């Protein structure tokens, strides 16, 4: 027996001597970056919709420069203050070679505390709302999977089901919980010393948009055009004095970097349901008559809670007629086939906020005020008003226009008045831009009843201009797969997918026009 035991002890000792336990690498804390740059990308799937202020749906590329002192050998660098929506697999480290990385989603939150103290004792504080009396007693957390269950001297109970105001007091904050988002990266074997390293990564929860503000001249032949770049952050981390820019255009992204399980972990960390589905009041005979309890509210980790006065504006205005040059103007640069708008001064991309910076100011963009109706099938649509110009330097512009909203004003005897809103698609140089801002009231299009025509029907329109000035009117015949238009008036303009009849109506004048509509089958005979 003793020989066997001795042999076993010797064998164990030999194995232990041959495979010593590997010590954990030392941890180096990097509390905050020395410098940071933030490049925001626009959500291409948002279309013409506004930024979701509660949960911006695009992303940003963030590069942080930090100074750390590394010991020789392998070390773990703990990066605090990274973006909460960081996509860990996108992170790259410059300045030292990384070996592995980890996203620490254990944030200091109510749910984190409950999970950390499950099976341990805490203090339960109850307050009677009728008397205001407060009582404290020891309790042990037993479960927090779906409902918070604790053990007290009186037995097990579900917290928040007693009808009293209750809260849990914890003896300390566990070392495993962090008050800030954390990314840890373990280096390879290196010589050590003080080094400057750069951490770059993609983070979700950002977006940006362009907003154009235009003032039409009284003659409708030019436009004073100004534009804001609105940047939105739904992240919990602020980036102070960041080198900031925005990229216009569609960027292809893989499914792996569109989001990350860490974001779901952040949602769970911020939210712990207090609306326990306790046994309903009443008796067992009337349970079926009670409506089911309302589900708990969905988690909202990216709530920004912003109002208009929380939007930070980096520019200035003068009076209500002329837009003064902005104090800060974003500069356009080429980024491959994309356009990058760089803000020339450092700005703070604050947590859960929006910021506006001017990026375009063109005092006189020449163009034309146009009234337009479209014929898609039979009768024309109600005429619309639009301002059309060409994005070229001779017409006063000549800069790329990223997609966004447009608000149009016009000066009057009573000051500047709103005349409508429009949208702008991504426009490059030497493209036509149309700002459709309202339905016409002083120009009407009346259609007579259809008359039988050769292999189709004939329509006759009467266009009336009630303005005291000449007005350009365009009638667009949209090419359809099942119908064709015939006997159209002369002098038609050919444009992609349509033909356009254009005329300048005199002041208080009118014009008649006729055309035929035929089915494809009839036209082929």
Describe the structure in your own words:
The protein has 525 residues and is mostly beta strands. Helices cover 7% and strands 47% of the residues. It contains four helices and 33 strands. It has helices spanning 2-18, 110-116, 261-270, 520-524, and strands at residues 27-30, 35-41, 58-70, 76-80, 92-94, 98-104, 121-127, 134-143, 149-152, 155-158, 165-169, 182-187, 193-216, 222-233, 239-248, 312-314, 331-335, 338-342, 347-349, 353-366, 368-375, 384-390, 404-412, 415-424, 432-439, 443-447, 451-453, 456-465, 471-478, 483-486, 492-495, 498-505, 510-519. A hairpin with a 2-residue loop joins strand 23 (404-412) and strand 24 (415-424). The longest helix has 17 residues, at 2-18. The termini are far apart.
Strand content: over 45%
Largest sheet: 13 strands, mixed
> Per the principal axes of the C-alpha atoms, what is the gross shape?
elongated
Low-confidence stretches: 1-20, 279-323
Keywords:
mainly beta, 525 residues, 33 strands, 13-stranded mixed sheet
Please render the helix and strand layout as text.
Blueprint: H1 2-18, E1 27-30, E2 35-41, E3 58-70, E4 76-80, E5 92-94, E6 98-104, H2 110-116, E7 121-127, E8 134-143, E9 149-152, E10 155-158, E11 165-169, E12 182-187, E13 193-216, E14 222-233, E15 239-248, H3 261-270, E16 312-314, E17 331-335, E18 338-342, E19 347-349, E20 353-366, E21 368-375, E22 384-390, E23 404-412, E24 415-424, E25 432-439, E26 443-447, E27 451-453, E28 456-465, E29 471-478, E30 483-486, E31 492-495, E32 498-505, E33 510-519, H4 520-524
Parallel strand pairs: 1-4, 2-15, 13-23, 16-20, 21-29
Antiparallel strand pairs: 2-3, 3-13, 4-12, 5-13, 6-12, 7-8, 7-11, 8-9, 9-10, 13-14, 14-20, 15-18, 15-19, 17-18, 21-22, 22-25, 23-24, 26-28, 27-28, 28-33, 29-32, 30-33, 31-32
